[in-house]
UniProtKB/TrEMBL annotation:
<keyword id="KW-0963">Cytoplasm</keyword>
<dbReference type="GO" id="GO:0008837">
    <property type="term" value="F:diaminopimelate epimerase activity"/>
</dbReference>
<keyword id="KW-0028">Amino-acid biosynthesis</keyword>
<feature type="active site" description="Proton donor">
    <location>
        <position position="71"/>
    </location>
</feature>
<dbReference type="InterPro" id="IPR001653">
    <property type="entry name" value="DAP_epimerase_DapF"/>
</dbReference>
<feature type="active site" description="Proton acceptor">
    <location>
        <position position="217"/>
    </location>
</feature>
<feature type="binding site">
    <location>
        <position position="45"/>
    </location>
    <ligand>
        <name>substrate</name>
    </ligand>
</feature>
<feature type="binding site">
    <location>
        <begin position="208"/>
        <end position="209"/>
    </location>
    <ligand>
        <name>substrate</name>
    </ligand>
</feature>
<comment type="similarity">
    <text>Belongs to the diaminopimelate epimerase family.</text>
</comment>
<feature type="binding site">
    <location>
        <position position="13"/>
    </location>
    <ligand>
        <name>substrate</name>
    </ligand>
</feature>
<feature type="binding site">
    <location>
        <begin position="72"/>
        <end position="73"/>
    </location>
    <ligand>
        <name>substrate</name>
    </ligand>
</feature>
<comment type="subunit">
    <text>Homodimer.</text>
</comment>
<keyword id="KW-0457">Lysine biosynthesis</keyword>
<keyword id="KW-0413">Isomerase</keyword>
<feature type="site" description="Could be important to modulate the pK values of the two catalytic cysteine residues">
    <location>
        <position position="208"/>
    </location>
</feature>
<comment type="function">
    <text>Catalyzes the stereoinversion of LL-2,6-diaminopimelate (L,L-DAP) to meso-diaminopimelate (meso-DAP), a precursor of L-lysine and an essential component of the bacterial peptidoglycan.</text>
</comment>
<feature type="binding site">
    <location>
        <position position="157"/>
    </location>
    <ligand>
        <name>substrate</name>
    </ligand>
</feature>
Length: 278
């Protein structure tokens, strides 16, 4: 049966969003074929919206076909679609990483309450106990590393954040792809490169686990703000400048929750191409 999709993006981080049953389960090969920018639809993540007894439910897959628990930009897109469909200004929905809530923040702008960051080493997860404010990891010569001691944060998915002004393509791609599969991260990791420009402004580029360098990463932006604030480098609210635009991130002191505000765009619609599940 044909499955329609809506093509969307959040700051250029793009998705195909489908409405399907709770038991819908594409194979890795199918997701990879749909994600392919030369021969498929082309996207960074696939997002599935379902209705169940417990209300709306959202799942995410990276372009490499792996299912993941969280996606910040994708959560804004999913929330906006659900609010448009129901004519509401707020929505709550389940995700594999836990329940989230969202509300409209202007024309095609959405704030998602991303919940509390997970900061214990075993919840990132790391392979061994470490202080997640700055973990024992470095890139480059032992006595003169290029980047070192990244903060580690889970926003429902694992992130490390290096504080550096080295943000050129070659460095981000080379270092990101190396760290993504480092044995310290049993589930892999998203790798952020954050240049703190002021107490309320960070320039961020993210090498995403399972998707590579994207134009923006919402959970990466949340993780960067949390990692920076924990180190005293910024306040608990900042504007994150990503390649595709800006996100406002607030780590609320009263609730410990991280609030992410940014735009969503609809690019078009289509039908998932027939593919073999193998
Ligand atoms: N682009 C996303 C993150 C998608 C998942 C990530 N690549 C992972 O594997 O955890 C975002 O906006 O957060």
């Amino acid at each position: 049966m044909a499955t329609p999709y809506v093509k969307m993006n959040g700051l250029g981080n793009d998705f195909a969003v489908v409405r399907v049953g709770r038991d819908w389960s594409p194979s890795e090969a199918q997701v990879r074929a749909w994600a392919d920018r030369a021969s498929g639809i082309g996207f960074d993540q696939l997002i599935a919206l379902s209705e169940g007894d417990g209300g709306p439910w959202v799942r995410f897959w990276n372009s490499d076909g792996g299912e993941v628990s969280a996606c910040g930009n994708g959560s804004r897109a999913a929330a906006w679609l659900m609010m448009e469909a129901t004519g509401t200004d707020r929505v709550g929905f389940g995700t594999p990483a836990g329940p989230l809530s969202a509300e409209r923040a202007g024309d095609r702008r959405v704030t998602v309450d991303m919940g509390a960051p997970r900061l214990n080493w075993d919840r990132i997860p790391l392979a061994e106990e470490m202080d997640t404010r700055g973990i024992e990891l470095q890139v480059g010569p032992i006595d003169d590393p290029v980047v070192h001691t990244p903060g580690a944060v889970s926003m429902g998915n694992p992130h490390v954040v290096f504080f550096t002004d080295r943000q050129d393509d070659a460095f981000v791609r080379g270092t990101g792809s190396l760290i993504e599969h480092h044995p310290l991260f049993p589930e892999g990791v998203n790798v952020g490169f954050a240049n703190v420009l002021g107490r309320d402004r960070i320039r961020l580029r993210v090498w995403e686990r399972g998707a590579g360098l994207t134009k923006a990463c919402g959970t990466g932006a949340c993780a960067a703000l949390v990692a920076a604030a924990r180190r005293g480098l910024t306040d608990r609210a900042a504007t994150l400048q990503l390649d595709g635009g800006e996100l406002r991130i607030v780590w609320d002191e009263a609730t410990d929750h991280v609030l992410m505000t940014g735009g969503v765009e609809v690019e078009g619609t289509g039908v998932l191409p027939e593919t073999s599940p193998a």
